[in-house]
């Protein structure tokens, strides 16, 4: 039997609010997925007016997630991951990448939106080494105490903490750096932290931010310096916090980068 979230019964479709757009479903729409509704597509279309190549931005993010997990699994020896703000299943989900390099790799997906569990269970929990947890990452203690997290993650060994495409959804007064540190405090030396986030790169970025704030209620595009500061206290690995296509690319990347290529930045650090 598939493990249930937090001991609750199966997530009912009634839990999925179709009267308002959700971040997970809007992102799915941006990526060209099918797990979204008209209310979400309206937002995706509005963002596309602000940033015509927004789908490319989403795929740059998915691609760097894949490269990051590959690096962690293949080169950093990480075989257990907590994927915070995991999103709906799409191509190359974290466990698919990690288990390609280590079939025993364990992945816990955490997302606040019950649709991720409802739609994601079949794919994201496709073997006993993966689980989906419906929880709010702003409550690290609860997330870290969750039975699925305790079952799959051995906190005496290095962990890959993934905060990919999510920290711009946290307001300043929610203390995103303290939340990052709460997860990193729970994992031992040798653990790694991967972050990607929207960056305040100029007027186009601010237009997307305004649309997100208006329709989704969240959206804080931080400066490169602010995003780099998330890694304070850890050893930031080469090439640092950079535009996503520049993070350990598989081939040459033409420059100058486009606005879409620069819209999100990311990096990986190691806890010493
Ligand atoms: N990490 C994936 C990626 O980068 O491709 C998905 C990113 S998607 C833009 C952000 C996800 O974070 C959504 O699925 C949303 O439901 C989830 N999310 C937003 N706020 C959250 C919170 N407080 N706790 C957990 N998940 C959250």
Topology:
Blueprint: H1 23-30, H2 38-50, H3 54-74, E1 80-84, H4 94-101, E2 106-111, H5 114-124, E3 130-134, H6 140-145, H7 147-152, E4 160-164, H8 176-185, E5 192-198, H9 203-216, H10 224-229, E6 235-236, E7 242-243, H11 259-262, E8 264-270
Helix pairs in contact: 1-2, 2-9, 3-4
This protein binds S-adenosylmethionine.
Could you characterize the architecture of this molecule?
It is a single chain. The chain has helices at 23-30, 38-50, 54-74, 94-101, 114-124, 140-145, 147-152, 176-185, 203-216, 224-229, 259-262, and strands at residues 80-84, 106-111, 130-134, 160-164, 192-198, 235-236, 242-243, 264-270. With 272 residues, the protein is an alpha/beta fold. The chain has one domain: Rossmann fold, CATH 3.40.50. Strands 1, 2, 3, 4, 5, 6, 7 and 8 form an eight-stranded mixed beta sheet that branches. Helix 5 (114-124) links the parallel strand 2 (106-111) and strand 3 (130-134). Helix 2 (38-50) runs antiparallel to helix 9 and helix 3 (54-74) runs parallel beside helix 4. Bound molecules: S-adenosylmethionine (SAM).
């Amino acid at each position: 039997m598939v493990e249930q979230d937090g001991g609750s019964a199966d997530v009912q479709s009634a839990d999925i609010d179709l009267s308002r757009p959700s971040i997970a479903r809007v992102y799915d729409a941006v990526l060209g997925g099918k797990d979204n509704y008209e209310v979400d597509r309206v937002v995706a279309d509005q963002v596309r007016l602000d940033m015509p190549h927004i789908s490319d931005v989403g795929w740059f993010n998915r691609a760097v997630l894949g490269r990051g997990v590959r690096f962690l699994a293949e080169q950093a020896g990480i075989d257990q991951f907590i994927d915070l703000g995991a999103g709906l299943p799409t191509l190359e989900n974290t466990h698919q990448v990690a288990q390609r390099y280590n079939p025993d790799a364990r992945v816990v997906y955490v997302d606040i939106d019950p649709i991720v569990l409802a739609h994601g269970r079949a794919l994201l929990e496709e073997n006993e080494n993966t689980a989906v947890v419906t929880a709010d990452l702003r409550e690290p203690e609860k997330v870290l105490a969750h039975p699925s997290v305790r079952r799959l993650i051995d906190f005496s060994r290095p962990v890959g903490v993934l905060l990919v495409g999510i920290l711009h959804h946290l307001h300043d007064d929610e203390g995103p750096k303290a939340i990052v540190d709460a997860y990193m405090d729970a994992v031992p030396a040798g653990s790694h932290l991967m972050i990607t986030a929207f960056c305040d790169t100029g007027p186009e970025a601010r237009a997307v931010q305004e649309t997100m704030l208006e329709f989704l209620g969240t959206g804080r595009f931080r400066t490169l310096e602010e995003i780099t500061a998330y890694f304070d206290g850890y050893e930031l690995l080469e090439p640092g916090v950079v535009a996503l296509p520049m993070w350990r690319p598989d081939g040459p990347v033409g420059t100058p980068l486009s606005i879409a290529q620069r819209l999100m930045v990311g990096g990986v650090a190691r806890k010493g």
